[in-house]
Amino acid sequence: MPTTTTTSTTRWPRPHLTAPCRSIAYLATGALLGLTVLLIGTVLVTLSGLLVIVLVGIPLLAALTLSGIPLAALERRRLRLLKPAETPAPTPHRTPESPGVAAWFRLRLREQATWRELAYTVLLALVLWPLDLLVVACAFALPALLIAAPAHLAVAGSGGIRPAKLWLVDGYPAATATALLGLVLLLVLLLPLVAYAAARAAFTRLLLAPRESELADSLAEVTRSRARLVDAFEAERRRIERDLHDGAQQRLVALTMSLGLARLDAAGIPEGPVARRLADALATAHAEADGALTELRELIRGIHPQVLADYGLTAAIEDAADRSTVPVDIEYAELPRLPEPVESAGYFAVREALTNIDRHSGAREARITAAHTRGALRIDVRDDGRGGADPGRGTGLTGLADRLAVLDGRLTVTSPPGGPTVLSVEIPCQAEAR
């Protein structure tokens, strides 16, 4: 019996020596940003207040309510100063359903995230940046005075010095000891500085990162957007199918009939080299037109089969099974008419499964089981081939899984080496009366 040997290497955790540097950079840039916001905000609020008299300041005041949006985007990115490996916090804002500045403005005014970002902007300008600056100053001011004791003593001369007015330092041994004490104090004070920076970042994330309800709304919007894309894709497929069926196919049918009539007329020409060449040319053209017509019909059937639209999923599955090179046994009760996207997804799942069986499985037979029970369509396609199918090697099953995900469906492929391979599709849906 084969055995598997696993070798593991234990890595001892290493202290994050860069954490103090990151914390200092985060707090220092926060103080600089907050001071800038305070100055610019003061100018804009004052200017808009003065211009309200001539009504120009009203739009400016309205625009100021959205000033937190760009600042919040910058703050979410600035969180990476503490943890560069993390991706930036996602935006809590949704995408407007209709284009235009007015739609964007209306949506932003209705979102809670906009007002949280405005509140954060006010806090940053009035409270947070002074706190950041104070913490950094407290962590460095006293240690810096103690560390600089030897330099101060050299400047002061024999009179001695009192670092931070704490004690008298009148010699270089005492100054050196004071500098070492300053280094120790700096290392000690870095710990609360790092803790404050972490708490500051957590507060920023709490206000500016999306809440669970906003994430749910964003996910719902993405799902609706994907559904709209699939609907548009299906509508375009049907349009192409109609254009090919009513346009190119009819022209090819007419061309084939004209070539057939020309062959009949050419049969009445007296025998001779010219007549034979003409008959051969017409026969070749007739065969090419027939082949092109057959390929076009297959293409139309692959885009959106007419049998699916006219007679439903039952007839479409039977049609797909009849065209398979591997014998297919179908086992199901009569399926009801289902929503068009569901029928289309179920049909193309069967088509993809039968195509893979024909090309790769080496199977002698296949079986399709389909049923609509408990508010869901379930289709199983099983073959007795060699198995070992890998859905990741091709794009057909991947695209099919994406298509089913829009319908809240699920695609499962079970294919152990040696077989059997089973492709299962489950789509929640209700029957329709047509």
Mean pLDDT: 76
How large is the radius of gyration? 38 Å
Order of helices and strands: HHHHHHHHHHHEHEEHEE
Number of domains: 3
What would you call the structural class? alpha+beta
Strand content: 5-15%
- Kindly state the percentage of residues in helix: 55-70%
> Largest beta sheet, briefly?
5 strands, mixed
Strand tally, please?
A: 5
Shape: elongated
Sequence of strands across the biggest β-sheet: 1-2-3-5-4
Distance between the termini: 60 Å
* Number of H/I helices: 13
Unreliable residue runs? 1-15
Task: Please characterize this protein's 3D structure.
- The protein has 434 residues and is of the alpha+beta class.
- Helix content is 64%, strand content 8%.
- It has 13 helices and 5 strands.
- The protein has helices spanning 19-51, 57-64, 68-78, 101-110, 112-147, 149-156, 172-208, 212-267, 273-303, 306-311, 313-322, 340-361, 396-406; strands spanning 328-332, 366-373, 376-383, 410-414, 421-428.
- A 5-stranded mixed β-sheet has the order 1-2-3-5-4.
- The radius of gyration is 38 Å and the shape is elongated.
- Residues 26-208 form the Putative sensor domain.
